[in-house]
Design goal:
224 residues, Jelly Rolls, four-stranded mixed beta sheet
Length: 224
């Protein structure tokens, strides 16, 4: 069944809520519009409440016979990632062409390292990695924070020493596993893709046996 969005209005368009700082020097035209609390929005037949990033209720705006809905709220309802590039005044919906490497924001774990003795895998130095190389059977995990801005996580991971028989990526807020897989040593660097639209926080976990390890290059793993 296709996802449908019904809006009880003459027409519909979408606008992105942005901080006042982005308006400096922008090509803006002043208009007279109205907040319209009589508009009802339904998604797949069920009423939805439009909210901003902080959870406050937002109303549609009516102007010149058209109704404008906040794009961030609609994107959240449709489970589509949304972001704003202030440098180019561009609204980014869905999967982005250019990936954003995890190395740009990763700072979660004691196993995060840039030590050249630890960041090299099969002859290639990845410069910035998560490498759990402890020597006992254990759970190894870290957090990622896409903050609802991305559609997909592309994660590269390798098992060292012993196969990893359980590896998963979980929506931390909803406690839902988005991907469950295994990583064999023989697979080398495995690419794992996870749909993360609308997800704020991710919990990444591996069960490691004995002296096995988990190697995740943060320069080639990315959000998009």
């Amino acid at each position: 069944m296709k996802n449908k969005l019904a809006v009880t209005a003459i027409g519909a368009a979408m606008v992105l809520s942005m901080g006042t700082g982005v308006f400096a020097g922008a090509n803006l035209q002043e208009i007279k519009a109205y907040l319209n609390g009589s508009i009802t929005v339904k998604y797949n037949g069920s009423p939805v409440q439009l909210q901003d990033e902080q959870g406050a209720v937002v109303l549609p705006i009516t102007y010149d016979g058209n109704t404008y809905l906040p794009v961030r709220s609609i994107a959240k309802t449709l489970n589509v990632a949304v972001n704003y590039d202030g440098a180019t005044n561009t609204v980014l919906l869905g999967e982005q062409i250019e990936g954003v490497a995890l190395a740009k924001s990763f700072s979660d774990s004691s196993y995060h390292t840039k030590d050249p003795d630890l960041t090299t895998y099969k002859g290639k130095d990845y410069k910035d990695v998560y490498f759990d190389n402890a020597k006992s059977t254990r759970g190894s995990s870290f957090m990622l924070y896409p903050k609802g801005k991305y559609q997909k996580l592309v994660l590269q991971a390798a098992a060292t020493g012993n196969d990893i028989e359980k590896f998963f990526v979980q929506d931390s807020d909803r406690d839902i596993k988005l991907k469950i897989t295994t990583i064999a040593v023989a697979e080398g660097l495995k690419t794992i893709e996870v749909d993360i639209a609308g997800v704020d926080k991710l919990f990444v976990h591996a069960d490691i046996k004995g002296s096995g390890g988990l190697f995740v290059p943060l320069t080639t793993s990315y959000f998009k």
